[in-house]
Design goal:
heterodimer; A: mainly alpha; two-stranded antiparallel sheet; 67% helix; 1% strand; disordered C terminus; B: six-stranded mixed sheet; 11 strands
């Protein structure tokens, strides 16, 4: 056997050459664009980090002065040097939870309708309508909630309290069966604020869910159909299991929005600094509404206290959104069904 | 025949398994893809649909179990009879039709979140058939055995269907289709995504099943058509025209003594 003559003789019998690290070749124009997007990407992270750092820094005097009492004190009376966010945090979570309980089933069914049931033309209309719903300023939802929704919602609130008043969250400290019932006891509650916030949470959750529903593999959908499955059967067997990650992720994204909603809540609620489960009863307070209502005439130390409340909300939202991102990422892409 | 817009109506039926397609034409929107196709498949027979890509074989197959109508804008003319029942007749329920005429797809598509056993019984869950635990285990074993997969998976029925190899997944899909008790099984190029060993296993499975159900299989593989089928139909679409059947009959005759020169050219590999 002969060695091909074009093989370099210097290679034969020598040590193998050491590996060299390969750098992807970039054209000059690519380099410029690469640099630009890198700068933008990093600056977004830097700005978010800076906001957190600023809030954290501003919180130091307050946390130093009040210590743990800041988290256990319910009242917010700067003039008496009594400041705490216990009640405010509870109110924030209550409004957000009401919003989620109302918006979750609506967003889920809406997304399923758009992805699996709606005719093509209706589908594109609905998608635009929902995008529009997301674009409406929150103050409009606040006004809608206060002037249009509230007069009707209080009747529902009274009915709930009449029939389910024995459950603490539906109890209201008034006689629901009185001939002339005290309407004002049912207004400006966490419940009504939550309903308005739900309208803002729906488009957000629905958009994420719909995007994931649309990705459910056609092969699996057809398999379920070919077995004699109904459309609902296909949704239950294929679409919903596939989209579990997206459903949870979208819900948590909407939750992040609900926790931070300000204008609509501020318009609807009447401030009350009390830890209570009675969501139908007038009066509650949320962190963002607290800040919006008080920062205008705050002294330096009060401003620090408000920013500390903001910092706590920032951390909660960060945790919720990070959780959502992780869950969306872990959701099945369908890729491993490939053979 | 004038096309009628397909809606999701339909059903009810008796036993048996003879399939008769009568003057079937099909459209996607305004584009006609099948023109006047008639084909009869006797009960307990394997019929192969052969022909080049884009000649309407898969569409014809999907007409046979009413999957064609799941495509928006789909239209159809003609009739499809299952043992004499028109499956497109008003009152025929589409879910019942699809239970009677099962389908195995080109790409294996087990439900990835379900275990192997749950995949087999998925059709029962989808059609709200309740079953005792014992009956269910017996059905799982029976269907997996008929699909030639039982010995390979009997010790791991609870692991996910997606952990199987491509060929095993395809046989799992066959078992899943068998579990609802179809009278006809449609197979759309079931081996095109599989290696030769898995392909041979599927062909063996088809040979074992053909006494129990009628099988209509679309294939691009001439040897496969010759090996597994007793009847064959050659589809062809001329340039810009909808597809149709050039010739159909016993497989042996179609391959060895075709009546149409185009069939001879195709089965001898001169085009397609």
């Amino acid at each position: 056997m002969t060695v091909a003559s074009d093989v370099s003789p210097t290679v034969i019998g020598l040590q193998p050459r050491p590996p060299q690290r390969l750098v992807p070749g970039l054209e000059p124009s690519d380099r410029i664009f690469h640099g630009a997007v890198t700068v933008v990407g990093i600056s977004v992270l830097a700005i978010t980090g800076a906001i957190g750092a600023f809030l954290g820094y501003q919180s130091i005097p307050t946390l130093h002065h009040y210590g743990l009492r800041f988290f256990t004190q319910t009242s917010w009376q700067p003039e008496l040097n009594r400041i705490g966010i216990a009640a405010v945090l509870v109110g924030t979570v209550e409004v957000a939870l009401v919003a989620m309980v109302v918006s979750f089933p609506l967003a889920l069914m809406l997304a399923l309708f758009i992805s699996d049931y709606a005719p093509k033309r209706v589908k594109s209309w609905l998608v635009s309508a929902i995008d529009l719903m997301a674009a409406v300023p929150s103050i409009i939802y606040g006004l809608w909630g206060f002037f249009l929704l509230q007069p009707h919602a209080i009747k529902l609130a009274r009915w709930l309290s009449q029939h389910f008043g024995w459950i603490p969250i539906f109890h209201v400290d008034t006689n629901p069966n009185a001939a002339v019932w005290q309407q004002s006891r049912y207004t400006s509650s966490a419940f009504i604020a939550g309903l308005a916030v739900a309208m803002m949470a729906i488009p957000l959750a629905c958009a994420v869910m719909r995007a994931v529903f649309d990705q459910a593999p056609l092969g699996e959908r057809e398999a379920a159909m070919a077995l004699g499955g109904t459309r609902f059967g296909v949704a239950k067997t294929v679409v919903l299991p596939f989209a579990k990650g997206g459903i949870i992720g979208g819900t948590m994204l909407a939750m992040g929005r609900a926790l931070g909603e300000t204008a609509a809540v501020l318009i609807i609620i009447s401030p009350a600094y009390e830890i209570k489960a009675r969501i139908l009863e007038a009066g509650t307070q949320t962190v963002s509404a607290l800040i919006a209502a008080n920062f205008g005439n705050a002294t330096t130390s009060q401003l620090s206290a408000l920013l500390t409340a903001g910092f706590v909300l920032f951390l909660i939202t960060l945790v919720v959104n990070t959780g959502a991102a992780v869950i969306i990422k872990r959701g099945r892409s369908g890729a491993h069904t490939e053979i | 025949m004038v096309p009628q817009i397909l809606t999701g109506r339909a059903v009810s039926s008796g036993g048996g398994a003879r399939v008769d397609a009568i003057e079937v034409s099909a459209w996607f929107g305004d584009t006609q893809v099948l023109d006047d196709v008639s084909l009869s498949v006797p009960a307990a027979t394997v019929a192969a649909l052969i022909g080049p890509s884009g000649c309407g074989k898969s569409t014809f197959l999907r007409v046979l179990n009413r999957m064609h109508e799941s495509v928006p804008g789909a239209q159809l003319a003609g009739e499809v009879h299952l043992n004499g029942d028109d499956i497109y007749a008003p009152g025929q329920r589409v879910t019942t039709v699809r239970k009677r005429i099962g389908m195995v797809f080109q790409k294996p598509n087990p439900f990835p979140a379900m275990s192997i056993a749950d995949n087999v019984t998925a059709g029962l869950a989808l059609t709200n058939v309740r079953m005792s635990r014992g009956d269910r285990s017996a059905l799982v074993e029976d269907c997996l055995s008929r699909a030639g997969l039982w010995n390979e998976v009997k010790d791991r029925l609870d692991s996910a269907g997606s952990t199987l190899s491509g060929g095993q997944q395809q046989r799992l899909c066959i078992a899943r289709a068998l579990a609802v008790g179809p009278e006809v099984l449609l197979m759309d190029e079931p081996c095109s995504a599989l290696d030769p060993t898995s392909t041979r296993r599927i062909e063996e499975t088809i040979a074992e099943l053909c006494s129990q159900v009628t099988i209509v299989i679309v294939t691009h593989n001439m040897q496969q058509a010759a090996r597994v089928s007793q009847q064959a139909a050659f589809f062809l679409a001329e340039q810009g025209a909808p597809g149709g059947i050039v010739e159909s009959g016993p497989t042996l005759q179609l391959f060895e003594n075709p009546a149409d020169p185009r069939t001879a050219d195709y089965v001898n590999g001169r085009f397609g």
